[in-house]
Every structure is written in structure tokens, then in C-alpha cells.
């Protein structure tokens, strides 16, 4: 997993997740930095156990995640399946990422 250059910023993943979970990628720092969203989305997927899924909740300021996130994820991380879930009440977007047959 990558490390933030700012020690005051807590990473989206702090441990391995062996059950399905959600990664909050809609903090103000995510709104300001689309590359950070992509980096932490990859970290979240890599921290998710095979056979489960992670919901990536991305900031609404970036719009739907397919154009800027999906191709990068599919070309970087093997064995995943992506599904757009919905727009959440706070304005963000939810992408469900199944890891190695988690669907």
C-alpha cells in the first residue's frame, strides 16, 4: 500500500479487510485531488480479501467514477469486477469492486 506524504492524513486503509467494507474517498482532500482518489482506491482494493468486495465512495465533485477511475483500476488490479451502485445521499458515487470472484 502507498503512504501519504502528509503524516497528518490518515490513510483510507489501515489493515486488511476480510469482509466486505466501504472506503470513504469523499473527504475534502479527495475533492481537491483526483489522483489521490485513484491511489487510495487501489490501496482499498489491495486491502480487500479475495471473495469479498469494497464499496468505493468517491467525491461527487469528480462526477461519476467510470471515466476517470474504472480504466485505471482494471488495468492496474487483476481479478476485479466493477459495478456502479448509485449516488449516495451526500452527493458521492458508489462503485462496488468485487475481488477475485466476490460477486
UniProtKB/TrEMBL annotation:
Spans annotated as Disordered: 1-26
Name this protein carries in UniProt: CGCGG family rSAM-modified RiPP protein
Annotated source species: Natronorubrum halalkaliphilum
Amino acid at each position: 500500500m502507498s503512504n501519504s506524504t502528509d503524516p497528518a492524513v490518515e490513510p483510507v486503509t489501515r489493515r486488511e479487510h476480510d469482509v466486505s467494507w466501504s472506503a470513504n474517498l469523499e473527504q475534502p482532500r479527495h475533492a481537491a485531488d483526483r489522483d489521490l482518489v485513484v491511489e487510495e482506491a487501489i490501496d482499498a482494493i489491495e486491502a480487500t480479501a479475495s471473495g469479498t468486495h469494497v464499496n468505493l465512495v468517491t467525491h461527487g465533485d469528480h462526477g461519476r467514477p467510470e471515466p476517470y477511475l474504472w480504466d485505471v483500476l482494471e488495468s492496474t488490479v487483476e481479478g476485479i469486477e466493477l459495478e456502479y451502485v448509485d449516488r449516495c445521499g451526500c452527493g458521492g458515487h458508489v462503485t462496488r469492486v468485487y475481488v477475485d470472484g466476490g460477486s
